Amino acid sequence: MAHLLLVEDDTTFSKLLSNFLGKHGHEVQVCSTITGAKEAIRSSAPDEYAVLMLDYRLPDGNSLDLLKLLREEGNRTPALIMTSFNDIRTAVTAMQSGAFDYITKPVNPEELLMVLKEALNRKETVSVKTTKKPEKQSLDFIEGNSKISKQLYEYVRLVAPTDMSVIIQGESGTGKEHVAKSIHRLSKRSDGPFVAIDCGSLSKDLAASELFGHKKGAFTGALQDKIGQFEAADGGTLFLDEIGNLGYDVQIKLLRALQERIVVPIGSTNPVKVDVRLIAATNEDLMVISQTGDFREDLYHRLNEFKIQVPALRERGEDLAVFIQHFVDKANEELGKNIREISKEVLDIFQKYDWPGNLRELNNVIKRLVLLSKDEIADLKALPQEMITSMEAVPAPVKLPGGSDLKLLQETHEKEMIEKVLQDVRYNKSKAAKLLNIDRKTLYYKIEKYQIE
Ligand SMILES: Nc1ncnc2c1ncn2[C@@H]1O[C@H](COP(=O)(O)OP(=O)(O)OP(=O)(O)O)[C@@H](O)[C@H]1O
After folding, report:
1. Residues in contact with ligand 1 (CB, 6 Å cut-off)
2. Which of 16, 61, 221, 368 falls between 20 and 30 A from 149, CA-CA?
3. Domain of 226?
């Protein structure tokens, strides 16, 4: 039995859900607002709730902001975001803010139990992930056959045996952590620990202590000496996920640790020698954010001894079929099912869909598909209705009227470039204008001209 906090403003749905979860042996406390959730969490014991189940849209904000705040306060309770299919891109961002997983509404009860079980298991293993332990060969891993995947793993094999720092860049859910583990596994350090830290879920105050350790009494709450993850990774690999989220002060300490190969725990004056290879992952372009001043440029250059770009699923062409088969096999085994085939209609949708959540989303959709399919062939009935509707709404690819019209092509390119830079700098128009090397007025004019939202 687990104590769950459900934050949901639809009272009928929250009642149904708590009854259902209650019948499955869980104790559910319900809040309907972010403010209520904050109060419930702050007035509870640190590990009171095993999982937070958060509706995305709430009357006083969205649960992403709540999650960010909780992570900043040091709360690490696994969180599950419940969202409508149309919000999948937001759910993907939620994963970057430290959510464990997302589930789309209308919630399928069995799917919910499955994801909940994973979240509860995760809670039990969360400390294992960062303890000194050799990483074993993962059988769960496939490379793919496309040209782009072959190149990816060629780079992995090239850089693995060296001691170079690596930046792994790619959209959320593309498999950056998997790539980092492969590098570790193929390195001379493979018998040493692989320590993974999600910088997105570290609070600003605790990040330094988590990475470098602290001495008893160094700050309020430092009740005993603590070894940092740098020391825990000694002789192995330290994987810093979402490194762009580290605060400036910690970035300075990190640079020093990399350059001098020593760490100084907070409250101590004694440096400790460490032998750690660093791999950092990011879904932002670190070069862009280092140019806008949000990430230290010297640290960027120190980390950027080698850069690997992990492709989005939509760019992996023929790999899609390989991953589908892999995830179906995995789901069959996990759920005790025997789905042998996926219908042509479903495959057509999979081919056309752009998979903003990448491999993670494909894995989730397939798990749901396998779970809900009654026969050996998984067909449309088991796909979220919204996915089908969203695909029906996609207009047929339009042929550009001027396939060779240079002006039109230039404008299309310009629009895409402006959209990308705006996204990279999180819609900060001053930064975007600076990077695009145009003045703000021109940028505003172009945003309006191209109707960029
Ligand atoms: N090569 C692979 N073979 C099989 N499964 C994979 C592979 N790469 C990723 N996955 C699966 O896809 C999901 C996302 O992978 P992972 O956590 O490595 O992505 P990520 O890019 O690090 O995500 P985030 O940006 O959220 O940190 C996981 O469930 C993982 O098991």
Report:
1. 95-96, 140-142, 170, 172-178, 241, 281, 283, 326, 359-360, 363
2. 368
3. 147-309
Q: What is the ipTM of this complex?
A: 0.97
Same domain for 154 and 119, yes or no, is no
| Number of domain units in the chain | 4
| SS3 readout for the chain | CCEEEEECCCHHHHHHHHHHHHHCCCEEEEECCHHHHHHHHHCCCCCCCCEEEEECEECCEEHHHHHHHHHHCCCCCCEEEEEEHHHHHHHHHHHHCCCCEEEEECCCHHHHHHHHHHHHHHHHHHHHHCCCCECCCCCCCCCCCCHHHHHHHHHHHHHCCCCCCEEEECCCCCCHHHHHHHHHHCCCCCCCEEEEEEHHHCCHHHHHHHHHEECCCCCCCCCCCEECHHHHCCCCEEEEECHHHCCHHHHHHHHHHHHHCEECCECCCCCEECCCEEEEEECCCHHHHHHCCCCCHHHHHHHCCEEEECCCHHHCCCHHHHHHHHHHHHHHHHHCCCCCEECHHHHHHHHHCCCCCHHHHHHHHHHHHHHHCCCCEECHHHCCHHHHHHHHCCCCCCCCCCCCCHHHHHHHHHHHHHHHHHHHCCCCHHHHHHHHCCCHHHHHHHHHHCCCC
Ligand 1, atom 15: nearest CA belongs to which residue?
175
* pLDDT tens track for 45-102: 878 899 999 998 889 988 888 888 887 777 888 888 888 766 666 667 666 666 777 7
What is the CATH number for 329?
1.10.8.60
Q: Rounded to the nearest whole angstrom, what is the distance from the C-alpha of residue 200 to the centroid of ligand 1? A: 16
Give me ligand 1 centre to Cα 14, in Å.
31
Same structural domain for residues 161 and 193? yes
